[in-house]
Structure to design on (169 residues):
């Protein structure tokens, strides 16, 4: 795997997510509606722009050393008062299995500790998503337990695992 970097998600990245939001794994393991509405990418981007302004969310494009879009690394919920954040990531199919998610989560984790000053980082991962659980494990996250039937999307329920890292880990 070549080197990767995170770059704050900008309008010029918005074109790239169009193809991968229809990917079966993205639709299965994320909150992207199935099928995504025609304006989904634009409204999703606008929500992260608003969150960036008010300090409640952040989104980064995951890029390789040639600038190719590999996916997104996200801070879904930033709570600066409680000093905690929920992070996540999603890759285009071509980037999977090559270490990009692990590298991106490692960078995103360090960003959250250094830039946000959080004490706790949380990941919520589908109990069926073994690849993402491996990413969490490789990045030093601790499995805390499974919340049964927590995830609900379009009439379907799924168990959700909680993984965390603390600033003291």
């Amino acid at each position: 795997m070549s080197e990767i970097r995170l770059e704050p998600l900008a309008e010029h990245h918005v074109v790239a997510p169009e193809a991968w939001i229809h990917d079966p794994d993205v639709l299965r393991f994320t909150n992207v509606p199935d099928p995504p509405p025609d304006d989904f990418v634009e409204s999703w981007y606008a929500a992260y722009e608003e969150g960036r302004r008010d300090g409640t969310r952040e989104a980064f494009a995951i890029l390789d050393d040639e600038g190719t879009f590999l996916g997104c690394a996200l801070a879904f919920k930033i709570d600066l008062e409680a000093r905690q954040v929920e992070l996540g990531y999603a890759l285009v199919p071509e980037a999977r299995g090559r270490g990009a998610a692990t590298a991106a989560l490692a960078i995103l984790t360090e960003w959250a500790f250094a830039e946000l000053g959080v004490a706790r980082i949380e990941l919520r991962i589908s109990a069926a998503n073994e690849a993402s659980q491996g990413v969490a494990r490789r990045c030093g996250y601790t499995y805390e337990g499974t919340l049964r039937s927590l995830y609900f999307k379009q009439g379907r329920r799924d168990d959700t695992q909680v993984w965390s890292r603390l600033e003291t880990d």
